[in-house]
Design brief:
The structure holds two protein chains of two kinds.
Chain A lengths: L5 H14 L17 H28 L16 H6 L3 H32 L6 H9 L6 H23 L12 H28 L4 H9 L4 H12 L1 H16 L3 H6 L11 H11 L3 H32 L1
Helix pairs in contact in A: 2-13, 4-7, 4-10, 7-10, 10-13, 12-13
Chain B lengths: L1 H24 L5 H25 L20 H9 L2 H31 L5 H11 L6 H14 L5 H25 L4 H8 L4 H12 L1 H17 L2 H6 L8 H7 L1 H4 L3 H35 L1
Helix pairs in contact in B: 2-14, 3-14, 4-5, 4-7, 4-10, 7-10, 8-9, 10-14
The chains are: A mainly alpha, B mainly alpha.
């Protein structure tokens, strides 16, 4: 999990190794002229394709964000007009608010649920392998397809159940009102994303040596106490990475909403990604939604950095 | 020879008894926890059970909570879904795209990572590393609109284009984990091969690539799950309905499905079945592959 700083440290180690005389013989000294051309040929095709399909579209996206392009035909440069308009567009502001709501709640819930299940699956239980296998199943399935099944459950089965049991809250479909539809979206998001996070947390839990727990139980620490004082601090790195990755992927939520509400009723449950898709491809707002996606990009980068800083500081003090 | 054999015969036995004894005294099987986890696992089974029973019903058996078993089974829902979504063709499209993306990703991304990992002390390659990996922070919506235009212009708004995009968009994450892994492989192996006259190209394919097997498993599994289940990229890239993938077809036929839920659910099941079947047989391998990538 500390791979981020690997390249730098290894590069440092290599330089020191080449400069030390002990490592000198047997290893051909490499200089810029002697580097096999093969290395360049190995990266060149990928680099070209990456520039064509990633970097150029990013630049184009930024360029179009300063135009009034509807997605076809000629367009004019309009300066920052799109950006200014974005901040007073209620549909856009609502999409951001809705996306933050879903992403925030889903990120927290997914991490609580999957950490709890991972601790359980790491315990002394029967059928360990089978249960681990079952909990991973949601990650095998397409979100869109599962979403259609959940859609039917939320709009038909759950209301029928609610009426039978006389629970008012459940007797109408969750998905027909924005005030409750977000719950359905979060349930689907957590159901699907927990699978992958559980696996990561189990991998983290297995790095904790069992002897520590034995020592702690001899000292009279209960289960909750040893989780708080031993387990959690020791897997803090896994927690950080899961929080950052979950938030990043939930901020881009798309399939879940297409399957459950398609943004409705009206535009009440639109996420930012869905709004960019709808406005850009179907609404003739190509330039305008490009500006929206540039803002969205900045938001995601800022969120990731702030979250990483915050969680890493906690990790260190823990 | 004989001592070795007897040692080997004794050692496992000794270890198991020790383990068992410790297991009995300190931590017996926690049945309450086992039961709780089984009950929780039902939340995963419920939607799947529901899909199965609904797919077998006739439309007039729907209604209520829908959890009851079908009173009479209508298998032809599957035949209807098969015809309506042109299942053989759609599944073949998904398979071609997934296999193509996985194979090309494994062959190319590992190679790029190797060239980068072994030259990180050079500014150029270090720069390339950060250039590729920084794409992890770029959300897809920002390139979604331009890339759809671009692929249409280049006549890549088809299966081949999709394969290329999966390979290119996987680079950021794959280079990140491949590079970390390659750096843990000692250079001595390559140096020995180089002394024997092997070329850099030969060294990569004959020495390094086989050593990458655990990472190849991780990357292969993740790419497979992504390409098979992805909806957004096929939605914005594919222009010919004939090359639609399984998730895309569920979306396209949604309006027709609305009038006939059993057929819709039969179609959902058929879309989920292939990968689910593969998973049932390769479960251990899949999970250890994913875990491997997580720990690195």
């Amino acid at each position: 999990m500390t791979a981020t700083n690997l390249p730098a440290s290894d590069a440092g180690a290599t330089t020191s190794r080449t400069s030390s005389p002990a490592a000198g013989p047997g290893r051909p000294r490499k200089s810029a002229t002697q580097l096999p051309r093969t290395f360049y040929l190995m990266v060149l095709p990928a680099l070209v394709l990456f520039v064509i399909f990633h970097t150029i579209p990013v630049i184009q996206g930024v360029y179009y964000s300063f135009t009034d392009s509807p997605g076809y035909g000629p367009s004019n440069l309009v300066g920052f007009r799109n950006y200014i308009a974005l901040f007073s567009d209620p549909r856009v502001l609502h999409a951001y608010w809705f996306t933050f709501l879903i992403a925030g709640v889903a990120t927290i819930l997914v991490n609580i649920v999957s950490l709890a299940i991972a601790v359980g699956l790491n315990g002394k239980i029967k059928f360990k392998t089978t249960l681990r296998g079952v909990y991973f199943v949601p990650n095998i399935l397409a979100i869109l397809v599962v979403g259609y099944i959940f859609n039917y459950l939320f709009s038909n089965s759950l209301p029928a159940l609610g009426q039978k049991l006389g629970i008012d809250f459940l007797s109408t479909s969750l998905l027909t009102q924005a005030s409750t539809a977000w719950i359905g979206i979060v349930i689907l998001a957590v159901w699907q994303a927990a699978a992958f996070n559980i696996i990561i947390y189990i991998a983290g839990l297995q790095t904790v040596p069992q002897e520590i727990y034995e020592a702690a139980s001899i000292d009279g620490a209960g289960a909750w106490r040893s989780f708080r004082s031993i387990t959690f601090p020791m897997i803090a790195g896994f927690f950080t990475i899961n929080m950052v990755l979950s938030l990043k992927s939930f901020l881009q939520i798309f399939d879940h909403i297409v399957a459950l509400t398609n943004g409705g009723p009206g535009t009440d449950t639109e996420s930012v990604a869905l709004l960019i898709y709808k406005g850009g491809f179907q609404g003739g707002e190509y330039g305008y939604q490009s500006a929206n996606s540039v803002v969205f990009f900045i938001v995601i980068v800022v969120f990731s950095i702030v979250q990483l800083r915050f969680l890493q500081r906690r990790e260190m003090s823990a | 020879m004989s001592t070795q054999a007897s040692e080997a015969a004794v050692a496992p036995g000794a270890r198991t008894t020790r383990k068992r004894r410790r297991g009995e005294s300190h931590d017996p099987v926690n049945w309450w926890l086992t039961a709780l986890l089984i009950v929780l696992a039902l939340t995963i089974a419920v939607p799947l059970y529901f899909a199965v029973v609904t797919a077998l019903k006739t439309t007039d058996q729907l209604g209520g909570t829908g959890f009851g078993l079908p009173t009479s089974v209508r298998w032809s829902n599957f035949a209807d879904a098969w015809r309506l979504t042109d299942f053989p063709r759609t599944a073949l499209n998904s398979a071609i795209i997934t296999v193509g993306a996985v194979v090309l990703t494994l062959l190319t991304n590992s190679m790029v990572a190797y060239a980068i990992a072994r030259n990180l002390e050079r500014k150029l390659f270090k720069g390339l590393y950060f250039y590729f990996v920084s794409a992890l922070f770029v959300p897809f919506p920002i390139i979604m609109l331009p890339v759809a235009k671009e692929t249409a212009l280049l006549h890549l708004d088809n299966r081949l284009g999709l394969i290329l995009l999966y390979v290119v968009y996987g680079l950021a994450f794959n280079i990140f984990i491949f590079t970390a892994y390659i750096q843990s492989i000692p250079r001595e192996l390559e140096e020995a091969a180089a002394m024997d006259g092997a070329s850099t190209w030969g060294i990569f394919w004959k020495v390094i690539f086989p050593l990458l097997a655990p990472m190849n498993a991780t990357v292969g599994i993740l790419t497979c799950l992504w390409a098979w289940n992805d909806f957004l990229l096929p939605l914005v890239i594919l222009s010919d309905p004939g090359s639609a993938t399984l998730p895309l077809v569920q979306y396209v036929f949604q309006s027709q499905f609305q009038t006939n839920y059993p057929t819709a659910f039969a179609s959902y099941l058929m879309a989920m079945a292939p990968l689910l079947l593969v998973y049932v047989f390769a479960q251990r391998w899949v999970i250890s592959g994913v875990t491997q990538g997580a720990v690195k």
